[in-house]
Each structure stands twice: as C-alpha cells, then as structure tokens.
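Figure 2 data, in text form.
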Amino acid sequence: MNNKIKLVMSKADEEFVVKMRRDIHQHPEISGQEERTAARVIKELNSMKISDIRSGIAGHGIIAVIGKKKEGQLTVALRADMDALPIQEQTNLPFASVNEGVMHACGHDSHIAMLLGAARLLKSVEGELNGQVVLIFQPAEENAPVGGSRPMIEAGALDSPKPDAVFGLHVWPTLPVGQVGVRSGFLMGASDRFKLTIKGKGGHASMPHETVDSIIVAMQVIQALQTIVSRNVNPMDAGVITIGKLEAGTRYNVIADEAVLEGTVRLQRPEVRSLLKQRVEQVAELVAKSLGARAQLEYSEGYPVLVNSEEETEMVRLATSRWLGKDALATIEPALTAEDFAVYLQKFPGSFCWLGCGFPDESKNFPLHHPQFQVDERVLPIGAQLLAEIALTYIQEKSR
C-alpha cells in the first residue's frame, strides 16, 4: 500500500508556484484565446518529464496524466481553469497585466499555478502511486453559458483514462489564507443568461405622445422582473434575477425606439429553472404590450447547480484536516455564484472547495471580478499541496 507517501513542498516548489502565477497574471487571455497560457503550461509539464500530455482539446484545453494505472487501481482528476476576464486591471502590481483590458480578476492564474505545483509534487512520488492522476487545464470557464468543461467532456478529454472522481478549488477572498471552505451537497448556483429587446417607436423628444418610449418601457420591465422571485418562487428556494446591462438611445433629444437589456438568472434548485425562464418571458412581453411596445427574449441555459458528492467531499475534509489541521476547515454557506466545474460533477463523483486567499489587512480584499482583486500569495503553495493531498488521500483511502 502507498499510505506512507509523504508530500513535501520544497522552497524551490514554493518559489515555482509564485513565479508561475505572476507570469500568467501578467499575460492574461480571455476565454477561447488562451494560446500563450496553454503553451506555458505545456512547457512546464514537459520540463517535469510528464510524457502523457494531450493539448488543443476544445480549443486550448490540456490533459496530462501522472502515474501508470494497473487493473483495479483508481484514477483521480484535478482541474484548473485558465481564462481571464475583459477587465482593465487597477492593482498597480509590479506584475500587473500587460494586455490592455484583460485581467485575471477571478484567480484562474492562481489555479493554474497551483495545479502545476501539485503536478510537481505528484510527479516526485509517481513511482509510489497506487493509481494515476489526471490534470485538467481547462479553457473558457468564464465563457457562459457554454463554458469550457462541457466542450472538453464532449471532445472525449476524460474518456481515457476515465476518472473515478474529479476535484477542484477556487480562491475565495472572504476566507483568510489557511482556511478551506468545504461543503457537501449544494455549493454553487445554476447560471442562465438572457437578452431582452424592447421595441417601441422612436421620435422627437418634444413629442412623446407620438412615440412609444422604449426606455420607459424597459424601466417598467426591469421593475416587474424583480417581482418574479419574490412572488413566484418558494421563499425557501434561492433565486436571483439581475439586469447587468441596459443599452438604449442615440441622442439626448431623441426618444429611443429600441432598448436592449442583458441579465442573468441564478438559482439553487434545478426544477425552478423552467419556471423562471417562463416568467421572465411572460412578464416582459405583457408589460411591454401594456405600454404599446414589444419584447423579444433570447434565453440561454448556462451552468448547472454545483452539487458536491458526500463521499468525495469527505475526502477533501480528510486531506485538509490531516495536512492543515481541523481548524483549517471553514464553515461556509452556499453561494449563487456559478462554476462550470458543476458539469464535471454531473458526470463524475467529486467535490469543489473554496480556498481562502484573503489578506490580514481587509482593506486589500476585493471581490472576485473586481479590477483591484488580488490574492495573498501565501495561498499559492497551500493550494498546490492541497490539490496533491486530495488526490493522494483519495487514492490511498479508496484503495484500502
């Protein structure tokens, strides 16, 4: 048995993870354009002498395998996402983005570096492994509603070797460094996306009686949409409808003939999805009609609800408590943020956890997707070893 394997992260390993994160942070690439990022990952995997590497999967996806599986042994997969966001960075870091209008504002640079660090650790004990570890470097996590996990699965990325379980993590700024948020069952919400086009009748600003003001109609539609969750959804079921974008008008003295709203629907229970979609369409159409306008809906179902399996989540707890101590396990509540890791969990058992990256100085902590978002870099070697410990714990415990 391999239950005596001990993972040791050296000073060189710690420096490697920090160096990788800074390099990738400085050169962010948005969904579907992760060419340099993927090339850098492949270069590092090759330098570790990992021979089983497949690239160009569903765009720039990469699969690498550590260990040789024998009959009856287990395969565990670890995933990191690689894409950045179309956000102008405002951190003033010495390694801030050199790509105008693109930033790793969601911590995917950290995830890549952590998985590469985990690969170094696991490669160092490869000969002792009683199974194999699949490394998933996934593109386009931010590309909702399509994402990157579903295209990778559909491309056969995990057909051979097929994992017995899949694990992942996400840096979380509301938790301090050294804390790991672990929860079985529902952890993150489903995420849908919609676009509403309000068609009115334009005209001169001085003659509103001859027009149908699409901006006024849009305002009424937005207000009415906010009643759907509060009056149509069971109060015990979480749900959110948010309009994040409104475009209308061409000039100060012209009544706009068209307004375009873009928004998102978040929910906890899959069965609520069809209700919310139906009500968004009904409310928008009827409110618009009552004001003499028309509403057209384009609705895309996105990422599913992220549900962690119990047994695999217990493996994360066990790995965390053995290595960092039980005090490192943070009590967390679910969030309606969405993650396309949920797609893996529809196909394989597995678990996703939150890794604290918050600074002791709370004034430095900004939310994910904020132009000033940063991670306390002490989290980087912690995340790398945590991923490796989870994989090793799963193989050891399930092989008993």
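Caption note: The longest strand covers residues 165-176.
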